Amino acid sequence: MAERSRIERFRTSLHVRRPPVNRSEAEMGVVRMLVGCLIVVAVSSTQGAQPTSPKTQGAVLFEGAQLIAGDGRAPTDNSAFVVENGRFVQVGRKGTVPLPQGARRIDLTGKTVMPALIDLHSHLGYYDVKTMINSAQNYTRANLIDHLNRYAYHGIAATLSLGLDRGELPFQLRAATGSDTALFRTAGRGIAWPNAGPRADYWRDAPYGVRTEAEARTAVQELAARKVDFVKIWVDDREGTVPKLPPALYRAIIDEAHAHKLRVVAHVYYLADGKDLLRAGIDGFAHGIRDLEVDEEFIGLFKARPEVFLIPNLPDRAPGASDLAFLSETLPSEQIAPMRETSAKGSPARPRLFDVQARSLARLNAAGVRIGFGTDAGVGSPLGWSAHAELADMVEAGLTPAQALVAATRMSAAILRLDQHGMVANGKSADFIVLDASPLENITNTRRIAAVYLAGREVDRAKLRAGWSGRSSD
Q1: 454 by DSSP, 3-state: which?
Q2: In this structure, is residue 270 part of a structural domain?
Q3: Residue 36 placed within a domain
Q4: How much is the pTM?
């Protein structure tokens, strides 16, 4: 959880009876055999359940857009690509990609296409957008789906919910989400010293609270049984206000997680803790170091383990004037006024916090560290907007627009092991954003969204917008 929110305090079986039919023993034997086979297939399918896949879709040829593939290479002007059954099946330049028989053609001349975003750090389900209240009572399937729809609206294809999930719901949702909204991945319950993880009361009890190595290992074992996507730990004393998870415990967590082939990502604040976590085998950081600028020793520890990643999660800020119009697409007008007031006041602490982390991010990026993308969204912040604000912050910190886009697409998909996502390339899931202008020229152009496609289906943004803000059009 970030030190402040993006806006501070913003708030069926069908039974048919049939007459008996006389069958021979041979016939009944065949029937029993077939039923047995069907049961085996059904059980196997259930055990290997994956997120829902799109229904069969006809081919569509998209032509004329500038294409940013997500691999960091120069964009392709006047591109052409074919989407069929939820995947990119051919990508190239207009004139070299033929129109498949029976396919539709969509002209994107003047537009820019880029991969949909991947958010590696969210806390969904607690914030009720209508009431502007955070509460554990809001952690329902309906609210989680609403949050994922807001992600889809803003061009986010998948998110990792990082350590504050409860009960069976997150795992059910992980298996159920797919082509209709953003993919949901979960770290389940995180691990911290008791009552020393997230700040707020409404989710302080969500993580495991551990005091001994045995408790720490047991928590990891329970998470491993749920096949979580990551293990999240908090190593932070909140400016001396709570006990910090000690090295003996986080080393036990990392060791046990690795024994179960799980990776561990840390919420961290202090440079000294970051160094020791790297020595202990941490797999990634959910925030940048915040007390000091990183030094050569820290960079060297990172470079010695090139698979370790950083999610910068840059300091929060209130939305500026240009953001308010973007936010008004998905929020009712009565919520915009207090945001405008917050924006006018600004945050006196942000320049110092941002400068420290920006310099560190620039140095780590130059050193070749794996830079991912995350927002900490859900802590009362406008869902979806946070991703576009983070992209702008990363560029403000010194990354080029192309580098920020790679971090938010291909690299984050790789970190989350979503191998079929994060790029516009043959065989990949057709998750992409159509923009009215190029973010390579101005990163804030990621907000100029003309359309979003997930698994080849266009998200009905007008319908979603009308339901949230009462506005059916921009």
Answers
A1: strand
A2: yes
A3: no
A4: 0.86
